[in-house]
């Protein structure tokens, strides 16, 4: 098991980074917010989980142990794989997910693409007591300020990333349109993506 990685960032994508460890570049899948915090050439430390499949080895990375623990915990529920677990953490902060599970807040859980009412009910049923045992910390979920209109190449990348996370092309396009029409609209790919994720999570 690869529990963590540390090294210089060689590449930053919308939902992944490549970290050089011992001369080897490791592709680590992350949430868009985590990827946006990384900078090429700077050193990063990520808590990681290695998902082993017959045909692949996939590494998922997180800024903190809390997000990693939740990523692994939600996958104990039938029907929840790493992709859906990562989508949950892309839409909501770990504390928001924990609070929703502890309080049976289905509306919050179903804002994640791929989670319907029945899936949300199953998550609450199987994890409510475990989440309460961990404790729900109402941390400060401050929204980072965004900076303002971007070209269609940038918007296309954001729409593609949102569709990759499970939203329909119409939902992705509508969210991007809403956030880029604002007076203080963000301009960078990662900033627009974060804003669109918040918009879709409303």
Automatic annotation (TrEMBL):
One of its GO terms (biological process) is DNA repair. GO terms for molecular function: ATP binding; four-way junction DNA binding; four-way junction helicase activity. The keyword Cell wall biogenesis/degradation does not apply. InterPro entries: DNA_helicase_Holl-junc_RuvA_I, Hlx-hairpin-Hlx_DNA-bd_motif, NA-bd_OB-fold, RuvA, RuvA_2-like, RuvA_C, RuvA_C_sf. The keyword DNA repair applies. GO terms for cellular component: cytoplasm; Holliday junction helicase complex; Holliday junction resolvase complex. Residues 155-202 are annotated as: Domain III. It holds the Pfam family RuvA_N. Keywords: ATP-binding, Cytoplasm, DNA damage, DNA recombination, DNA repair, DNA-binding, Helicase, Hydrolase, Nucleotide-binding. Residues 72-91, 107-126 form the Helix-hairpin-helix DNA-binding motif class domain. Its main location: cytoplasm. It is found in: Cytoplasm. It comes from the Bacteria. Homotetramer. Forms an RuvA(8)-RuvB(12)-Holliday junction (HJ) complex. HJ DNA is sandwiched between 2 RuvA tetramers; dsDNA enters through RuvA and exits via RuvB. An RuvB hexamer assembles on each DNA strand where it exits the tetramer. Each RuvB hexamer is contacted by two RuvA subunits (via domain III) on 2 adjacent RuvB subunits; this complex drives branch migration. In the full resolvosome a probable DNA-RuvA(4)-RuvB(12)-RuvC(2) complex forms which resolves the HJ. Has three domains with a flexible linker between the domains II and III and assumes an 'L' shape. Domain III is highly mobile and contacts RuvB. NCBIfam families: ruvA. Belongs to the RuvA family. The RuvA-RuvB-RuvC complex processes Holliday junction (HJ) DNA during genetic recombination and DNA repair, while the RuvA-RuvB complex plays an important role in the rescue of blocked DNA replication forks via replication fork reversal (RFR). RuvA specifically binds to HJ cruciform DNA, conferring on it an open structure. The RuvB hexamer acts as an ATP-dependent pump, pulling dsDNA into and through the RuvAB complex. HJ branch migration allows RuvC to scan DNA until it finds its consensus sequence, where it cleaves and resolves the cruciform DNA. HAMAP family: DNA_HJ_migration_RuvA. This is Holliday junction branch migration complex subunit RuvA. It comes from Ornithinimicrobium humiphilum. The lineage of its organism: Bacteria, Bacillati, Actinomycetota, Actinomycetes, Micrococcales.
């Amino acid at each position: 098991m690869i529990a963590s990685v540390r090294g210089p960032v060689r590449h930053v994508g919308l939902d992944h980074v490549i970290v050089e460890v011992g001369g080897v570049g490791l592709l680590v899948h992350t949430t868009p917010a985590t990827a946006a915090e990384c900078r090429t050439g700077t050193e990063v430390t990520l808590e990681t989980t290695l998902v082993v499949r017959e045909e692949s080895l996939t590494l998922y990375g997180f800024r903190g142990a809390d997000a990693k623990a939740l990523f692994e915990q939600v996958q104990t529920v039938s029907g929840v794989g790493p992709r859906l677990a990562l989508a949950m953490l892309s839409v909501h902060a770990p504390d928001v997910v924990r609070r929703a599970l502890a309080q049976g807040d289905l509306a919050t859980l179903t804002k994640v693409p791929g989670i319907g009412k029945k899936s949300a009910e199953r998550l609450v049923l199987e994890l409510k007591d475990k989440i309460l045992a961990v404790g729900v910390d109402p941390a400060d979920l401050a929204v980072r300020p965004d900076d303002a209109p971007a070209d269609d190449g940038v918007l296309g990348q954001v729409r593609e990333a949102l569709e990759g996370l499970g939203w329909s092309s119409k939902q992705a396009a509508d969210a991007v349109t809403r956030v880029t029409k604002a007076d203080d609209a963000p301009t960078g790919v990662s900033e627009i993506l974060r804003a669109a994720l918040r918009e879709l999570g409303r």
